[in-house]
Inverse folding.
């Protein structure tokens, strides 16, 4: 009799797991890496769209943190590629984030702080899109940025089930949290604001 706890011998045993478990596993990796699994098989094509937690981090695409792997020319290609990818996921006409319960965005500028004024509007739009699409179920929101000059949109305080809101500045820069006059929060909220050199 086969032991039910014994791992199958097939190399594709992970594909036999239930869809909710597969999507949960993918929620622990950066979103672009999760999306890459769609090429594994026909079944995996949509697994990444079922994740409830989105984690975005542009650090791997910056030469400042990967000098041995990236040239500045390569960074100049990857930076807009990352932005376009997130724009498609969060602001495109799709239902991929309607079941989102956790949203994490860690954004660095590295040595290219000249792009700050070009890219900050995109960051704000991502935050608004994530909060607006799922205001009734979003529970955790984490945001970290390497520059100042950004205002956290008030829509975050309209997420009725929001439990934790974490805002972190990596280099002691100022981040403004725009709290509206009317706050719609039915659950306790914990706000942690730090000015430290924190990396993810």
């Amino acid at each position: 009799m086969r032991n039910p706890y014994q791992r199958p011998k097939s190399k594709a045993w992970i594909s036999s797991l239930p869809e909710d478990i597969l999507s949960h596993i993918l929620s622990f990796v950066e979103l672009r890496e999760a999306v890459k699994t769609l090429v594994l098989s026909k079944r995996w094509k949509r697994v990444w769209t079922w994740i409830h937690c989105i984690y975005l981090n542009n650090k791997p695409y910056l030469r400042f943190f990967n000098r041995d792997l990236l040239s500045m020319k390569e960074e100049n290609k990857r930076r807009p590629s990352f932005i376009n990818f997130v724009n498609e996921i969060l602001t495109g006409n799709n239902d991929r984030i309607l079941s989102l319960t956790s949203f994490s965005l860690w954004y660095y500028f590295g040595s290219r702080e000249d792009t700050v004024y070009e890219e900050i509007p995109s960051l704000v739009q991502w935050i608004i899109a994530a909060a607006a699409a799922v205001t009734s179920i979003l529970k955790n929101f984490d945001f970290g940025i390497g520059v100042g000059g950004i205002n956290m949109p008030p829509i975050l305080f309209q997420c009725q089930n929001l439990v934790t809101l974490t805002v972190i500045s990596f280099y002691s820069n100022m981040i403004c949290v725009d709290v509206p006059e009317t706050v719609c929060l039915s659950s306790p909220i914990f706000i942690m604001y730090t000015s430290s050199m924190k990396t993810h």
About this structure: The beta strands are 53-57, 102-107, 140-145, 150-152, 164-169, 175-177, 190-195.
